Every structure is written in structure tokens, then in C-alpha cells.
Amino acid sequence: LAPGRPAARVCLRRAAERLGTMSLLFGLTLLAQAVLMVLTVVLSRLVANGEAPADLLLRAGVWLVGLFSCWAVACIQDLARIVSLHGDHGLWDAGARTLVTLRQSYLRLAWAAGWRTALALVTLGGALGAGLVWARGDELLSLVLLHQLAIFWFVWLRAAWLRRAVRLVAVAPRLGGSV
After folding, report:
1. 166 CB-contact burial (10 Å; exposed 0-12 / middle 13-18 / buried 19+)
2. pLDDT of 71-85, one tens digit each?
3. SS in 3 state form for the chain?
4. Buried b (16+ CB within 10 A) or exposed e, 120-143
5. At what angle do helices 19-47 and 53-86 cross, to 10 degrees?
6. Alpha carbon of 103 to those of 25, 26, 37, 77: distances in Å?
7. Is a pLDDT exceeding 90 seen at residue 65?
8. Rounded to two decimals, what is the model's pTM?
9. CA diameter of the chain
10. Cα 112 → chain centroid
11. What local confidence, expressed as pLDDT, does residue 52 receive?
């Protein structure tokens, strides 16, 4: 073990102690994202019913805002999970500390999550494009290798985002008293 790092058993115990909070955060995130997507569908149909280019652009803009909102909710949920595991916080305390962390370093958090997500989207586009080009059976091995490389890249980007979020949570001011 590296000095200063907790053993795996300690990490698993801490995660198990926070399982209720983690479950609630996951459920609230799913609920918020479902509501956002329903609003996105309804708004896209209300603002643009036709097939004119302006309507299509307006509908695409509504979808971009909806998808961005769902992405932001997921990033905030990641941050709340980190806060809950980082300290001895229940759901409400984790939510309050998450808001403090967001207020303190929202630009750093947006940059940390944003460029990694953009890279993941570029990789996804490249993998899908290559998959369409290499759809023949003779290049199946190349397609499988590309798929595995894309998965590795996504996992690495996600881990890098979470590592950066952990660092930002660690330097956020502690809450005093009750929240």
C-alpha cells in the first residue's frame, strides 16, 4: 500500500456505510434527469412543429440544452457522492457541502468535467464512424480492438474527472454547525 492511502477494506466499509445516501443520490439523479428529458421532449414539440430549417434548428437547440442539463445533473451527483464518501455526511449534509463546493469552484469543476466529456464525445464519434466504415466481417478484429480502446479511454476520462473532483472537494471549506 502507498503511504497515506487507506486499505481496500476501509474504502469498502466507508462505501457500505454510505449505501443509503448513495442510493438516494442515484434515485434523485435519475428522477431529475427523467424530468429534464420529459421537459425537453415537450418543449421541443411545443416550440417547433414544422419541418422548416428554423424549426429544426430550434428543436436541436432545445435538445442541446436538455442534454447539457442532464449532464450537469450527473456531474453534480458525482460531486455529491464524493462529498458523502469524503466525510461523514448524510444526504442533506452532502447536498449542502456539494453546493458550497460548487459555489467555490464552479469554473474549475465545469472545466474538469467539460473537456473530458468533450474528448469522450469525440472518441465516441470516431468509434461510431470507424464502426460504420469497418462493418464488414474481415475487419472484425480491428473493430473489436477499437471498441476496447474506446472503453479504456472512457474509463480513464471518467477516473480523471472523479480524481479532479475529489481534489476540489478536499479543498472546499468545511461546514460548521448544523446545516
Report:
1. middle
2. 999 989 988 888 888
3. CCCCCCCHHHHHHHHHHCHHHHHHHHHHHHHHHHHHHHHHHHHHHHHCCCCCHHHHHHHHHHHHHHHHHHHHHHHHHHHHHHHHHHCCCCHHHHHHHHHHHHHHHHHHHHHHHHHHHHHHHHHHHHHHHHHHHCCCHHHHHHHHHHHHHHHHHHHHHHHHHHHHHHHHHHHCCCCCCCC
4. beebeeebeebeeebeeeeeeeeb
5. 170
6. 20, 22, 26, 15
7. yes
8. 0.73
9. 65
10. 11
11. 83
Cell numbers linked to 30? 435519475
Quickly tell me which residue has 477516473 as its cell: 159
36 alpha carbon, distance to own chain's centre = 15
Q: What is d(CA 154, CA 125) in angstroms, rounded to the nearest whole number?
A: 13
For 175, residues 6+ apart whose C-beta sits below 8 A from its C-beta are: 93, 96, 97, 100
- Nine-digit cell string for 95: 447536498
Q: How far apart are CA 158 and CA 20, in angstroms?
A: 23
Output the average pLDDT for the chain.
82
Identify the residue whose cell numbers are 418543449: 43
C-alpha cell at position 157: 476520462
Spell 67-81 as b/e; 16+ CB within 10 A means b.
Answer: eebbeebebbbbbbb
